[in-house]
Design goal:
This protein is an alpha/beta fold. It is 54% helix and 12% strand. It is built from nine helices and five strands. It has helices spanning 19-30, 42-46, 68-77, 93-101, 114-146, 150-160, 165-172, 176-189, 195-205; strands at 11-15, 35-39, 55-60, 84-88, 106-109. It has a five-stranded parallel sheet with strand order 2-1-3-4-5, sandwiched between helices. Helix 6 crosses helix 8 (176-189) and helix 7 crosses helix 8 (176-189). The radius of gyration is 24 Å and the shape is elongated. The N and C termini lie far apart (67 Å).
Length: 211
């Protein structure tokens, strides 16, 4: 009976033109049960389909064609937010400063300790996992907000402004009972248990309040 292996839940993408380094990195990450994909250049990676799961890139500075730093710039311009761990045998302070300012997780000089690489990669994967969770939660909030009727959207804005039912009723020229009905439906659609929940949602969504 063939044993089924669980599908990987995260992946490290290694980009290095040195085949021996690609092999070494493959063994290192697989020894920790981390899936790995390797490429010899930035162009190869750009031409491939990236796995949609928590991921990071272990990227050599000096590559044929597009350099590691220029590749980092390319990803940023394309809106691809993938944490990067740089590695290089020819690093210098200006390079490391540029990489870190652009959001790199770490900058390791070859030869580096396996544990240093693993620590950097685990930080990068955790960073990407948390970002994905935030993005997913925000997408869900936007879906809920879009499900509101115009009146309910108005109610959302007024309630998160801190106004009481009586004040809202005066602004909308409706009864307090009507306000309570619309407010209740709105909060149910937004899956909010309190005004504090709604305020946090409004802040996350960037919704302007009326006050």
């Amino acid at each position: 009976m063939t044993r089924e292996h669980p599908k990987p839940q995260q992946v490290v993408i290694v980009v290095d033109d040195d085949e021996s380094m690609r092999v070494a990195m493959t063994y290192l990450f697989r020894s920790m049960d981390i899936a790995v994909k390797v490429f010899g250049s930035a162009a190869e990676l750009l031409a491939s389909e990236l796995p949609d799961m928590p991921r990071c890139i272990v990227l050599d500075i000096r590559l044929p064609g597009l350099s590691g730093l220029d590749f980092q710039d390319t990803l940023i311009k394309q809106g691809l937010r993938i944490p990067i761990v740089f590695m290089t045998g020819h690093g210098d302070i200006p390079m490391s400063v540029r990489a870190m300012k652009a959001g790199a997780v770490d900058f390791l000089t070859k030869p580096f300790r396996d544990q240093d690489m693993l620590d950097a990669v685990m930080r990068a994967l955790e960073e990407d996992r948390l970002r994905r969770e935030r993005d997913s939660a925000l997408s869900e909030l936007r879906t809920r907000l879009a499900s509101l009727t115009p009146r309910q959207s108005e109610m959302f804005s007024l309630v998160t402004s801190g106004l009481l039912n009586k004040q809202i009723a005066g602004i909308l020229d409706v009864s307090e009972v009507t306000v309570k009905i619309h407010r209740g439906i709105m909060m149910k659609k937004m899956d909010a248990r309190s005004v504090a929940d709604l305020v946090r949602m409004a802040e996350a969504l960037g919704v302007k309040t009326t006050t």
